[in-house]
Design brief:
The chain has 729 residues and is an alpha/beta fold. The protein has 24 helices and 21 strands.
Length: 729
């Protein structure tokens, strides 16, 4: 008999075990049983052949419509051509070779089968060449591998050309026949409260259900295992973080913060005041704050974060602001100095006596400026240190680091954030800011050990942004009108961004979209538009005579600073850039943005980009230029962005269209995903319930000592690397 830890090679034999290991990394019986069927096909429920895509490796359930032997035209011999259908479409199966009589007799019209292979096109007809297949007959099956398909429900697994779905199904059949009853780690009372089947039944029914209801019940139980495991790990991390000591940084009545608030030239929004109170309370506690601040583009997160930093400075500590790019770090430093005025120049000529100092630390600083910044951080003269990844280098030290603010968290790896926090004598308070709103279930899991604050309302004086899709495939004249509109904006004294997906010919695309979406390429598609080519085209063509400049990640740092400073000063009319302008760049006089090849960008990315305009008194305009045709997923994304400025609504759409990724950091570590069934979008209620149950279990049993099977399951689900990832995150 076998258990979940038994080696597959000992249960199903070396050949199949080797194929499962090579294809999916499956080594044990438990690994195989958690390789769940993608779906349950049903006899009479044929595969939608119209949905098949070229080059996909597929398994289809279809019925033979015709078969015939055809002589080859350009070479000797013959081939067997079989046409299968689903009632709406057809697919050709081609078998080369002269000796196909036996196959022709087997694949007669009316025969039902599972056919597996790679979809290709020949003479405008989709086909599978030499597919592997299993014939399904109602009166018993001739193939041993097909025994499992005798029932009404047919499991269809993710498969490879080395091991097909029916072979995986046979391996599962062998394993289930030898499997000892599986102990259930989930408390019986919890199962009863939520109407969950036991684990042994779930593992058997998810592969061999008698009915669809039984299959759904098994999947629901297994989703609970995944959700509860993650939430238990997060609850343990929250408990451990709460037990860590941190230096309290309470507000003082007559410090820099109070003086700053007196001088503010605008009124804080209700949301800014409420979030400010949350941060002030957190900072005053003797345990480290772990808070995620998410807010719309332009909702005033920087002011909220600055007020928190000043509270720490008043309490004798320092704050570090970690920015993803040198352009953004330099801008943060400039804007903080501008907001503070003489309060940012303590001890300097003209500086306020009760102020502090701002230090900027990036990799490209000149030696003298770098030395001054390092001394300011190490000696404590600089109360606020702004920088890029240069802040985490070994030789950078702080006198008393009390607060770490991470801007645009998705731009930093967990290890980078952790390295900065390690520079404090005690765990510092942590504030993570993102302008990409995060759906609630994603926040509950990916950021489950952070408290969350949200800024929804925009500050007074912010102008609305209108967004329009420019479909150059259907209406090429609209692009000419876009260039004309740029001239009108510049003629009115305003400035414009033009955004491209890559820097120049031969460079890689500057957005990661092509790995996320399958629909941005089509036959005959030209390469992505580039900043260098587009700048030359505009300078010599529709925008000749205007002051154009380029900004992208390939420029030397001092050149980037010079260009950005020129744009801020109004010396540049049109800035042609990559997504380096996506976050944080603040030029109130910029009122228009044209995004070229807009379908190559993600929904949240486009929302970020358009947030760069309309930051002053004049209304903003964003034009999304695309060749994507109506009805395509690409066009639907763009239409969704044009239809709403609600970032939270768009964030939900963005996660739906992108791969959800792995909560425990698979994307960063390269490990296999631990979430096989749980959907961060569709299973919101389940995740919320698991979070409550996990909090209760951990509150009563922090180390899960009274739940050894549950502790073991969490260890398997999370693993050492995942636990470390969660702890750092």
């Amino acid at each position: 008999m076998a258990n979940l830890d038994s080696r597959l090679v000992d249960v199903i034999g070396g050949r199949s075990a080797k194929a499962l290991s090579a294809g999916f990394g499956l080594e044990t019986v438990g690994d195989l049983l958690r390789h769940y069927p993608r779906r349950m096909a049903e006899r009479g429920e044929l595969t939608d052949l119209a949905s098949l895509r070229i080059d996909d490796d597929v398994t289809v359930l279809a019925e033979v419509r015709s078969s015939r032997v055809v002589r080859n035209r350009n070479r000797s011999g013959s081939r067997l051509e079989v046409v299968v259908g689903d009632g709406k479409g057809t697919l050709k199966l081609t078998f080369f070779g002269n000796r196909q009589t036996w196959r022709e007799r087997e694949l007669t019209p009316g025969t039902l089968g599972l056919f597996a292979g790679k979809v290709s096109v020949f003479n405008n007809t989709r086909q599978l060449t030499h597919p592997e297949y299993v014939v399904l007959r109602g009166d018993g099956l001739e193939h041993l591998e097909a025994d499992a398909f005798a029932g009404a429900l047919i499991p269809v697994y993710a498969a490879t050309k080395e091991i097909r779905t029916w072979q995986i199904s046979h391996c599962v059949e062998v394993v289930l026949a030898t499997l000892d009853p599986v102990d259930d780690p989930m408390p019986a009372a919890l199962r009863t409260r939520h109407g969950l089947v036991d684990l042994d039944r779930a593992l058997r029914s998810v592969h061999r259900p008698d009915t669809r209801d039984e299959w759904h019940a098994a999947r629901r139980r297994l989703k609970w295992d995944e959700a509860l495991g993650v939430q238990l790990a997060l609850a343990q991390r929250r408990l451990a973080a709460a037990a860590n000591p941190a230096t309290p940084r309470p507000a003082v009545a007559d410090g820099v913060l109070a003086e700053f608030d007196k001088r503010l030239p605008f009124e804080l929004t209700t949301g800014q005041r409420e979030v400010g109170e949350q941060l002030a309370d957190d900072l005053a506690r003797p345990h480290p704050m772990h808070r995620l601040l998410q807010g719309e583009v332009g909702s005033g997160k920087t002011v909220v974060a600055l007020r928190a930093m000043l509270q720490v400075v008043d309490a004798g500590g320092q704050a570090a602001l970690l920015a993803p790019t040198e352009v953004l770090a330099a801008q943060h430093a400039r804007s903080i100095e501008a907001l503070l005025g003489d309060l940012a120049h303590a001890g300097q000529l003209g500086g306020a006596d009760n102020g502090t100092r701002i230090a900027l630390l990036t990799g490209s600083l000149p030696a003298a400026a770098r030395k001054a910044a390092l001394l300011g951080a190490a000696g404590g003269a600089a109360g606020i240190v702004v920088g890029t990844h240069a802040l985490i280098q070994q030789h950078v030290s702080f006198a008393d680091l009390g607060l770490v603010v991470v801007d645009e968290q998705h731009r930093f790896g967990v290890e980078q954030r952790d390295a900065l926090r390690s520079k404090a004598k005690q765990p510092p308070h942590l504030l993570v800011m993102t302008a990409t709103p995060i759906p609630r279930t994603v926040a509950m899991t990916v950021f489950g050990d952070l408290d969350t604050s949200v800024l929804r309302e925009l500050p007074l004086g912010r102008s609305p942004i209108s967004t329009t899709v420019v479909p150059v495939g259907e209406r090429p004249a609209w692009l000419d009108r876009a260039w004309q509109r740029i001239r009108e904006e510049v003629g009115a004294g305003r400035q414009v961004y033009v955004v491209c997906p890559r820097i120049g010919a031969g460079t890689e695309i500057d957005v990661d979209l092509e790995a996320e979406f399958d629909d941005v390429q089509w036959p005959g598609r030209r390469p992505p538009l580039a900043v260098t080519d587009t700048t030359a085209m505009l300078r010599d063509g529709p925008l000749s005579g205007l002051r154009l400049a380029m900004l992208h990640g390939g420029l030397p740092p001092d050149e980037k600073d010079r260009v950005m400073a020129g744009f801020v000063a109004g010396d540049i009319d049109v800035l042609v850039a990559t997504t380096v302008v996506e976050v944080g760049v603040d030029v109130p006089n910029a009122t228009m943005m044209v995004v070229l090849d807009a379908e190559r960008f993600g929904v949240s990315q486009l929302h970020q980009l358009r947030g760069r305009v309309g930051r002053g008194r004049d209304a903003g305009l964003c034009l999304l230029v695309t060749e994507a045709m109506p009805g395509t997923p690409s066009r639907e994304r763009l239409d969704a962005v044009a239809a709403t400025t609600d970032g939270f609504e768009l964030a939900q759409l963005d996660v739906e269209q992108r791969r959800e990724g792995d909560v425990l950091g698979t994307a960063q570590s390269g490990r296999r995903s631990t979430l096989r069934l749980l959907s961060l979008l569709r299973d919101e209620d389940l995740i919320a319930a698991a979070r409550e149950e996990a909090a209760e279990i951990v509150a009563a049993d922090p180390d899960l000592a009274a739940h050894p099977l549950l502790a073991a399951q969490v260890a398997v689900l999370v693993g050492e690397a995942g636990a470390e990832y969660l702890e750092k995150a």
